[in-house]
Every structure is written in C-alpha cells, then in structure tokens.
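The following block was generated as part of the benchmark described in Methods. Ligand: zinc ion.
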Amino acid sequence: MRWDDFRRSDNVEDDRDSGGGFGGGGGFGLPMGGGGLGIGAMVVLGLVGWALGIDPSILISGAEIATGGRGGQYQQPYEQPTTRRTTGAPKDQMGDFVAAILGNTEDTWSVIFKESGQEYRPPRLRLFAGSLPGGCGLAQAAMGPFYCPTDKRIYIDTSFFNDIRVRFKGCSGKACEFAEAYVLAHEVGHHVQNLLGILPKAQAAQRAAGDKVAANRIQVRVELQADCFGGIWANRSNQKWKSIEPGDVEAALQTAAAIGDDRLQKQSRGTVVPDSFTHGSSAQRQRWFTTGLKEGKVSACNTFAASTL
Ligand SMILES: [Zn+2]
C-alpha cells in the first residue's frame, strides 16, 4: 500500500504512555474464553445494562468479535479521564501510519459528503496501550479497535497491529498495511453511519426489536455496511492517490475473512452459533467490502434493503 502522500490527521490522540506498558498486558494476545471477565460478571453487567435500559449496541466494535461476539456487557458512559495525552500526528511509525490513514479517510469522505451538499465532520482517534481509557466505559480492555458513537471517537489498542499479523494471520508483509487500513476504514465507516443518522435509527430498531436475536440481525447489517463504507474509502483513495498495490486487496479480503464471526467463533468455541453473529460471516464481510470497493458510492451499500446479505 502506498500512503506516503497522505495528509496526516490532527485528530489523533496519543494515549499510549498513560496506558501502562507498550503492547503488554491487556489480555488481548490470546483467545481467552472470558476475555478477562468472569462469566458471572458478564451476566451481571448484562442484566444491569438491561435493567437500566442501556443500549448494548451503544458501542460498536470492530473486534469485540475477538472475544466471541458478545455484545451485552457494557456500562454507562462515564467521565473522561483527565490524563495528559499528546494530540496531533504522532511521529513514530505506527502513529504516523494511523494519522496518515485517518487523514486520508477525512479527505476522501469530505469529498463524498460535499458531493451531496453535506459537510463531513471527522471523528477523533485515540491510540492506547493496555487498559482502555474513558469514552464508552467498556467493561474490559480485551478488545480491538472500536467506535464509540457517544463521544465520536475511534479507539485503537496498539496490540491490534500485532494481532492482525500474528494472531488472525490475515496478511503478511507489506500487504498488512492495507489490511490494517481497511479495519480503520471500517471504524470510520461507523462514524459515517453516525453522521448519516443510520446508527441512531439502527439502535432504535434494535430497542424496538426487543430480543437479542433480532437485535443481532440488525447489528450484522450495521457491520456489513461499515465494511462496504471501508470499500468506498479504498475505491476513492485509489482513484486519487493510487494507493492500492498488487496483493493489497487480497490481504484485506483475507483479513475480512479472518475476523468474520463464523471463523472467530469456531476458533474460540469450536462451534458456530449464527444467531449470535454480530459482524457477519467471512463471506458476507468479503462481499460487502468488495461491493464498496467496486462501486465507490454510498448508495451501493444499503445493507438494510438487501434481501440477501
Ligand atoms: Zn464494526
């Protein structure tokens, strides 16, 4: 992937120092059944959330699937911590890459929004290591990247970059950059859904649905649309910056397959439970990313109208 020419975003918040240990701890490195929380604690948190009427989908994750696709254990958003953090484009390799991809999604989506007479307001992105900082008040740190609609931030645990290459084995070598960019673009896709009013509508529909199975079905459409939006970014970025190199798309598709719910559930439990899918199967994720990549326009990504996903 070619990204040297990308403008670096100023919307990166570097919280890696205050997280305690670079790439250490966190519990994300191994496929643990409970993801760091006992099953009892998860049941309790789930029930608390249910009783308080908190929407479990308030936090849309690109990788909560890594702990088995459970979507219920959230707490209420809490106060932002007052730790000092660096703002602006980081200078190290990982930070520079993230700032470049985020900057490129900003430039790309600004153009797309302008085409329909709208203004794109970019999300902020917080890099952290180890324990999760503030935001959506997630109950555990054992997660990959996710988007928090309430504070309009993308959160990325630095261990994610290692996971993409080593644990999920979705890519190898330089092609990993595009696979990583695709996952970032997926999270930005959730922000676009938020700006377009799709997320609030989907969440209302999930509340109205009442049961978890129906809510999960809606969630799958949300996730596949974010994949499709990621494909739109890749399409437009390649048109203008010639950013895609041979092998890149294959690496992204491999990654999409590697982080499909069916694959991850097989890894973690040995069986597949379709009703609990929240991100879609590997084939579905590949299909919708490809659709966005080919078509390059939002109207091609209506996963909510599609009769077959
Ligand atoms: Zn997602």
